[in-house]
Amino acid sequence: MVAAYGRHYLVEAEDGEYLRCVPRGKQSLAACGDRVQVTRTAPGEGVIEEIGPRTAVFLRAAPHRRKLIAANLTQIAIVCAGEPSLADDLVARALVAAEDQGLRAFLVLNKTDLVEAATVARARLAPFAQAGYPVVELSARRDPAPLRRHLSGAVTALVGQSGMGKSTIVNALVPQARAATREISRFLDSGRHATTAARLYRLEPAGAIVDSPGVREFGLAHLGRAAIERGFPELRPLGGECRFTDCRHRAEPGCAVRAAVDRGRIHPRRIELLHRILDAESAPRR
Ligand SMILES: Nc1nc2c(ncn2[C@@H]2O[C@H](COP(=O)(O)OP(=O)(O)O)[C@@H](O)[C@H]2O)c(=O)[nH]1
Ligand SMILES: [Mg+2]
Ligand SMILES: [Zn+2]
Prior knowledge:
Elements: E1 3-5, E2 8-12, E3 18-23, E4 36-42, E5 45-51, E6 57-62, E7 65-71, E8 75-81, H1 88-100, E9 104-110, H2 115-130, E10 135-137, H3 145-151, E11 155-159, H4 166-173, H5 177-187, E12 199-202, E13 208-211, H6 225-230, H7 256-262, H8 268-281
Parallel strand pairs: 3-5, 8-9, 8-11, 9-10, 11-13
Antiparallel strand pairs: 1-2, 2-3, 4-5, 6-7, 12-13
The structure holds guanosine-5'-diphosphate, magnesium ion and zinc ion.
């Protein structure tokens, strides 16, 4: 399934044909990247009978509303840039959602041609780099090539704030992407949704890339406190070393995390982000 537009789904059949599909009945929603079983009903049309098992589902969630971004990914790339202004809170949240699903994740610093803005953004990403996330720098306008080897053979979703350059990157990497987007608008008789839905494109010779709509808020309401903490992998080696087993890593005595921050092993901004996310989600203990 390469794209979902409301109740309409665009499905790529095994022979490469694109089918416009609707779900059978009120079954659970399919996500971009899902493998689905389809019954053909007319030329170019079908009904989704069943959604296949998922290896992972990348999603964000408000308290009573989940938003599936894509399924069956192998990794996510969080697209960042100096312009518009970069929200590191959103970066941290997307990484938590990825870690929860066991997805590899890395950061893309796009628009390096805007030298001054890129310097500011690079500094804002330093805490993530220190935590071990690769940062791939490029200017999609000039040359998307630095990204290519990170995508080969993988199914990668590009996620991030609006305006960071996700669609520009996809258009630079997938020659037929622009045409495909236009085609879909016509196909679904509505241009309206074409830019508000995630869309999967095949990469040659293997793999795929998912362009997703910009996110302003990346809710983690589906995750409890423990899962959010696990989204900060640099804390893992310290597991259980705090004096109190329920240590919040704030002002407790004998906190191994604070000690690691003081020794420069963990970036203080990451702990600030952890606390901000926990406070905002007021995550119940699970
Ligand atoms: N200067 C510069 N602008 C870029 C670059 N990549 C994208 N943009 C511009 O940033 C704006 C937003 O890009 P878009 O791909 O629509 O962002 P998206 O919302 O993340 O999909 C557009 O005006 C692009 O032309 C780049 O490498 N350098
Ligand atoms: Mg876009
Ligand atoms: Zn602690």
